[in-house]
UniProtKB/TrEMBL annotation:
Residues in the signal sequence: 1-21
Gene source species: Ananas comosus (Pineapple)
Cross-referenced Pfam families: Glycos_transf_1
Enzymatic class: transferase
GO BP annotations listed: galactolipid biosynthetic process
Record keywords, A-Z: Chloroplast, Glycosyltransferase, Membrane, Plastid, Plastid outer membrane, Signal, Transferase
GO molecular-function terms, A-Z: digalactosyldiacylglycerol synthase activity
Protein name, per record: Digalactosyldiacylglycerol synthase 2, chloroplastic
GO cellular component, one term: chloroplast outer membrane
Length: 488
């Protein structure tokens, strides 16, 4: 292995699905590779056509991985001012309707050749490893970094029997991240505590939003009216993404917010219900289909309302701040990073929400400084990631195996050896359990996801193992074979 770092970024989603685990790892790969000092590979899921139709918006589908790869590069190149220098590989995946997520099929570690297996970045390490059955990540890669994106416990608590499900999920997340990751980066304290974890926001915003913010600042400096629209919210239109909280706040305070107009933008499973609830209000709350947040339609809004408490770090909040808007959001750990920005207004109760909203609509945003703008950028996010993941520490490596004779080792090394033995046993148990189809299905895995099926193999160009030819004697019962041998 050369001294040059090879970084493989594994994630749970891909464009054109505009979800956080599709967009943020893509930008991370681009900016880690920008200097040319590291070799970076982004590993994303490939879905067969029937699953693409369920997941990807606007009826976008791909006939081949190379076609989707071109789409991803093209989308990125339209949003950054440099040419991407990283590679893309695909792993087989299946979409779970029950979990509303893409789940890996087979052993993800096989996507990277052994000679390139240096540093693995697992975006959503718990998600990638719930059903992992294959080589242990720590055995293949020198260093494994997990980045926790999603507050799964909060989502699960809102389901039927949510408290019980959250109890088991909490320990499942702890188990798989402990045995498969050397270090965990939690984007905010809204996520659960995990072994060997730190809290650090290693996400930035699409450069387009910073450019929009600069243009708005120039308008204000020229004395022009930069914001001609009032309040809005954008996000996937499911109740758990803050729509329930927002409509409740508006409903309870209609008399205080007389004349307020709010536009909601999003697409999702709960769109029809959100529409019906919004129509019950006396306030002018309009529901619109989802759109790209960088669309010119949003440039003139002044106030972004985001009461969501299920996000870990809300991407749309960061984008709104970058565009120079005022953000009204809840006092919640997911918003801690944003408190440093003067245009982020935090409320603790309904009265504060009403007051901050009315003040924001009648006032003007404060201009961002160059330092504040940099904090929101992917350059700063990449610097934070390199520091948090300790990528510049030359001696960072996995625990070296210790001599088999422990009697003469110091107590600290004996304890280290013992912990490693326990971890290896725990990993072996997970491998055993995750290899049983009935158990996998019982815990939510996609059917027959231990190995990619013939269709996925064909689409990804994975070699199909030759079927063993069976002779007639191989299918005969042993009793008949013994008689056959005697007569011969």
């Amino acid at each position: 292995m050369s001294m040059r770092q090879h970084i493989a970024i594994f994630t749970t989603a891909s464009l054109p699905w505009l979800t956080g685990t599709a967009v943020n790892p893509l930008f991370r790969a681009a900016y880690l590779a920008k200097s040319g000092e590291r070799d970076v590979t982004l590993v994303i899921p490939w879905l067969s056509l029937k699953d693409q139709e369920l997941v990807y918006p606007n009826k976008i589908t791909f006939d081949s991985p190379s076609e989707q790869e071109s789409y991803v590069y093209r989308w990125l190149e339209e949003r950054i001012d440099f040419r991407p220098k990283f590679g893309i590989k695909f792993y087989p995946g299946k979409f779970s309707k029950e979990m509303r997520s893409i789940l890996p099929v087979g052993d993800l570690t096989k996507c990277i050749p052994d000679e390139e297996a240096d540093i693995a970045v697992l975006e959503e390490p718990e998600h990638l490893n719930w059903y992992h059955h294959g080589r242990k990540w720590k055995n293949k890669f020198r260093r494994v970094i997990g980045i926790v994106h999603t507050n799964y416990l909060e989502y699960v608590r809102r389901e039927k029997n949510g408290q019980l499900l959250a109890f088991f999920l909490k320990y499942a997340n702890t188990w798989v991240t402990r045995i498969y990751c050397h270090k965990i980066i939690r984007l905010s304290a809204a996520t659960q505590e995990l072994p060997r974890s730190i809290v650090c926001n290693v996400h930035g915003v699409n450069p387009k939003f910073l450019k929009i913010g600069k243009e708005k600042l120039e308008q204000l400096q020229r004395g022009e009216v930069a914001f001609t629209k009032g309040a809005y919210y954008i996000g996937k239109m499911v109740w758990s993404k803050g729509y329930r909280e927002l409509l409740n706040l508006l409903s309870k305070n209609q008399s205080k917010l007389t004349g307020l107009q709010v536009d909601l933008y999003g697409s999702g499973e709960d769109s029809d219900e959100v529409q019906r609830e919004a129509e019950k209000l006396s306030l002018a709350v309009k529901v619109h289909p989802g759109r790209d947040h960088a669309d010119p339609l949003f440039h003139d809004y002044k106030v972004f309302l985001n009461p969501s408490t299920t996000d870990v770090v809300c991407t749309t909040t960061a984008e709104a701040l970058a565009m120079g808007k005022i953000v009204i959001c809840a006092n919640h750990p997911s918003n801690d990073f944003f408190k440093q920005f003067p245009n982020c207004h935090i409320y603790n109760n309904e009265d504060e929400f009403v007051k901050l909203t009315l003040d924001a609509l009648s006032g003007q945003p404060e201009p961002l400084t160059d330092e504040q703008r940099h904090e929101l950028s992917w350059e700063a996010a990449t610097e934070r990631f390199i520091d948090a993941a300790e990528l510049n520490h030359a001696n960072v490596s996995t625990q070296k195996s210790l001599p088999p004779k422990m009697a003469f080792l110091p107590a600290s090394l004996r304890m280290s050896k013992l912990k490693k033995s326990v971890e290896d046993a725990s990993a072996y148990l997970h491998q055993s359990v995750s290899g049983i189809e009935v158990v996998r299905r019982a815990f939510g895995a996609a059917p027959k996801s231990l190995k990619p099926d013939e269709q996925l193999r064909k689409e990804l160009g994975i070699d199909i193992p030759p079927r063993k030819k069976r002779s007639i004697t191989s299918v005969l019962p042993k009793r008949l074979l013994s008689k056959k041998n005697k007569t011969s």
